[in-house]
Amino acid sequence: MNFNQRFESTVKDMKKGIIFSMAVACILGVQTAVAQRVVISTEKTSIVLDAPTGGDLNFAYYGEKISDKDADLLYDAGQAWQQAYPVYGLWCQREVALSVTHSDGNMTLQMKVQGVEKNGDVTRIKLKDTHYPFYIDVCYKTYPGKDVIETWAEYEHKEKGVVKLNQFASAYLPIRYGQVWISHLYGSWANEGKVEEEPLRHGMMEIKNKDGVRNSHTDHAEVMFSLDGKPQENTGRVIGAALCYSGNYKLRIDTDDSNYHHFFAGINEDNSQYNLKSGERFVTPALALTYSHEGLSGASRHFHRWARSHKIMHGTELRPILLNSWEGVYFDINEEGMDQMMKDISGMGGELFVMDDGWFGVKYQRNNDSYALGDWTVDTKKLPHGIQGLIDTAKKYGIKFGIWIEPEMTNSKSELYEKHPEYIIEATNREPVKGRGGTQLVLDLSNPKVQDLVFHIVDTLLTKYPELYYIKWDANAPVMNHGSQYLTKDRQSHLYIEYHRGFEKVCQRIRAKYPKVIIQACASGGGRANYGVLPYFDEFWVSDDTDALQRIYMQWGTSYFFPSVAMASHISAAPNHQTFRTIPLKFRIDVAMSGRLGMEIQPKNMTDKEKALCKQAISEYKQIRPIVQQGDIYRLLSPYEKLGCASMMYVKPDKSEAVFYWWKTETFVNQQLPRIPMAGLDPHKNYRVKELHSIDQKPLAFEGKVFSGAFLMANGLEMPVEHDLPWHERIDYSSRVLYLVAE
Ligand code: GLA
Fold it and tell me: Which overall architecture, per CATH, does domain 322-630 show?
């Protein structure tokens, strides 16, 4: 049968299925309906499925919201047949979402619709195998007022033995073949979130992670598909997809001889075959989908709005401006030093001080990264008045206090490891491979006792010091050894999955007891930027690289999927500690101000003039904070275009205020830079323009002037290429932050 014959016969089957489904009513409990066409819509988007009872579950459409009438005519419009959740065994040649080995060795599935349940915002399509007592629920969830649809699968069986899950993707999405480009984030430690975009070509593209603990250093489990050729920021149809998972993942895009790109996303099954017991339920993580015809930025805005309201802890609240001690003092923690840093950040208008690594360890002192993880007792040689002493000092300076921990880890040189060697991840009959500092080991979170331990680390700190306002939760090692001392022999392949189930259980316990504390997900920098952890964490550390120029590129990519309220972005020293580049303070401030502003610097080494500039910027950031942290993003000119500058804006949803950022990304004499039209404003409103913390000798020509939104969006404003400074103070970089207020 060729493709057309297959298509026609399937359409016939489908029509039969509809008639069949109209004749047979099956009872599945609350609000069960006879299943046929299922339209799942948000305000601006729709997914359409065909779910004829007793027939195949077919995927008909994803995109711009469509009417029921158009949904009924999809097949007449020429829509091809696709299984909504392809399974292995019959029609073997295709890529699938699920493949299993039944208890009797049979490797096939043939799933038919039993019915559709709608419960609130969740639509559940219930499938059953034609022969085996094997069941799949394909689920879709919408959120009121948000243009994101989550989809995932749940499996269960009542076979006599174990069913092996060989492949178990969360979801499948067919995307019509055409001028489809993918944008995805690749990178490395200190180089996270780099954008790569390319047309989808024939063959299989795979994006994956196998770290075991941190899943977003190298590649990201989020992608954008631009349907109309090379990705544009503010025009063109885009589908965005984000896998909400903290562990190993795999995204596959198979472009075959059909008219579709076949997109699969889910847990990475490599070395993770899952033995599903009779009666046990396996729930895959959700894949969040969005669609926009307003380009990449449009899809980002959908993700950001959904995430702030539903997927990031305290996502709709504003974040304090902090100083973190790491790049200022590294492991050299002592009371006097902490006091001075707190005084300095308070003097600059900061609101929180975070003491990073180096404060703990009794038998083994944490003077470098080889010792004491797991021994979360304060080192009183460094801090004679303990944590409470530091909290009191913070109070004296009118700021809050936060602390660094790395609770999933230990060192072989630690009291914890000496007492509980059975808590670490290691393979039987093997010496464990160790990580950071030559001694770091990962605790086995599949073990409930380890889950208790990790919970108690946080619980003890927060009960002993209820005024602790912020926790920086780090994770600086991958799973290096495949072996659990807790899991039984037949469940060793569950390690990666059980680790993240254990991790999530701990997070849930912490949040049940401590809903207010701010927690940052740090994982050797940006290793935990994902929607698996963010429901429990307030923010993530974008990267250990704080170089402002490189951050423009990293934050640009990261903002495709994550809102600035969650993107920790700090002003650091010059020369920078990672790139050794010397960037003027003004530019460092202007980049940090486009995210969740903080400082990562030794204020003692700053001049009074530098402190004064930071003080001014911090005070102005407080003014624009609601727009930056809660506004709509409009990326204007990408640094990846290499046109010499980059620019973006945040606009308040009611379009009454906006912040415009412009950064020069390279410097040449007499260079020519493009003039950048703005976006997202109200064309009918008039905006007064004010430059924030200007360092020029004279105000810019447009300072204080009022322009229509229409003019600004059609023309933009001409940015002077250089800062107007006295000769001996001139600098190579230039940047501008403009605050626009509607009159
Ligand atoms: C990791 C983090 C840093 C810092 C150090 C402390 O590398 O990413 O920000 O906290 O650990 O050891």
Answer: Alpha-Beta Barrel (3.20)
